[in-house]
């Protein structure tokens, strides 16, 4: 099981003072030393945390692959095509949201997404679609030509009862299997932490977990390398 560490909120701390520390390349180096398999960052249209220069530096200087989360806004697509991260993950984006809320409606946006996916594939950049674990979205994702999906685990992570959490876990498990049968590689992420990650990590069809906020929050107390090591141990 691979672990991608999202370092958006390292940038959030830096942007509080509009300074240069903490440095995101230093964060990527620490994650790599601790065993992370990739670095994830989200270049939002409002630039609330990650900046254009951050993406450029991370792609050039990170010792592990960079997975760029992004909307399909033409400006952001153009930046990604120029910078050429190892992977892009297309996500929905609303200006007023605190964090990404739910997955892409691929069934509705299939034609537009297929065009964007094709542009990235033409540059040799794998494109993943961030979607809810629903059969219609999974099949639509396969029909765009994307070879990768990331299942949104927010409903699972935010469930308030054990019964609700088990229902959501079943949906993620079923969705991962459906994705695999459709020829897709499957990742998962959103809202995962040390307390809830193990059941998701046990889903055999999921190859990768992408986790950010809980690792950065834990790092305030134990340091970033130790926080990544703890998460790696938990998913094993």
Total E-strand runs: 8
N-to-C terminal Cα separation, in Å? 7 Å
Mean pLDDT: 96
CATH superfamily: Aldolase class I
Structural class: alpha/beta
Order of helices and strands: EHHEHEHEHEHEHHEHEHH
Beta-strand portion reads 15-25%
Q: Under the CATH scheme, which class?
A: Alpha Beta
Structure characterization notes:
With 236 residues, the protein is an alpha/beta fold. The protein has one domain (2-235): Alpha-Beta Barrel (TIM Barrel), CATH 3.20.20. It contains 11 helices and 8 strands. It has helices spanning 8-15, 24-33, 52-61, 74-83, 106-122, 135-143, 154-157, 162-181, 197-201, 213-222, 224-235; strands spanning 2-6, 38-42, 66-70, 87-90, 127-131, 148-152, 185-189, 206-211. An 8-stranded parallel β-barrel has the order 1-2-3-4-5-6-7-8, surrounded by 8 helices. Helix 6 (135-143) links the parallel strand 5 (127-131) and strand 6 (148-152). Helix 5 (106-122) runs parallel beside helix 6 and helix 10 crosses helix 11. The longest helix is centred in the last third of the chain and has 20 residues, at 162-181. The termini are close together. The mean pLDDT is 96.
């Amino acid at each position: 099981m691979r672990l991608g560490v999202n370092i958006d909120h390292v940038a959030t701390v830096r942007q509080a003072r509009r300074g240069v520390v903490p440095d995101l390349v230093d964060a990527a180096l620490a994650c790599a030393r601790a065993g992370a398999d990739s670095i994830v960052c989200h270049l939002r249209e409002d630039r609330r945390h990650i900046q254009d220069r951050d993406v450029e530096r991370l792609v050039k200087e990170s010792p592990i692959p960079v997975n760029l989360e992004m909307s399909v806004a033409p400006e952001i697509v153009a930046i990604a095509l120029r910078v050429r991260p190892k992977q892009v993950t297309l996500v929905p984006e609303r200006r007023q949201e605190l964090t990404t809320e739910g997955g892409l409606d691929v069934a509705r946006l299939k034609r537009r997404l297929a065009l964007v996916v094709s542009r990235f594939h033409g540059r040799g950049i794998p494109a993943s679609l961030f979607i809810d674990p629903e059969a219609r979205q999974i099949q639509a994702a396969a029909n765009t030509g994307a070879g990768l999906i990331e299942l949104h685990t927010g409903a699972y992570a935010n469930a308030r009862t054990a019964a609700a959490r088990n229902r959501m876990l079943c949906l993620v498990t079923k969705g991962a299997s459906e994705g695999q049968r459709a020829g897709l590689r499957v990742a998962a992420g959103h809202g995962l932490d040390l307390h809830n990650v193990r059941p998701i990590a046990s889903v055999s069809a999921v190859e990768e977990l992408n986790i950010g906020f809980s690792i950065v929050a834990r790092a305030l107390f134990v340091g970033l390398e130790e926080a990544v090591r703890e998460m790696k141990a938990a998913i094993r």
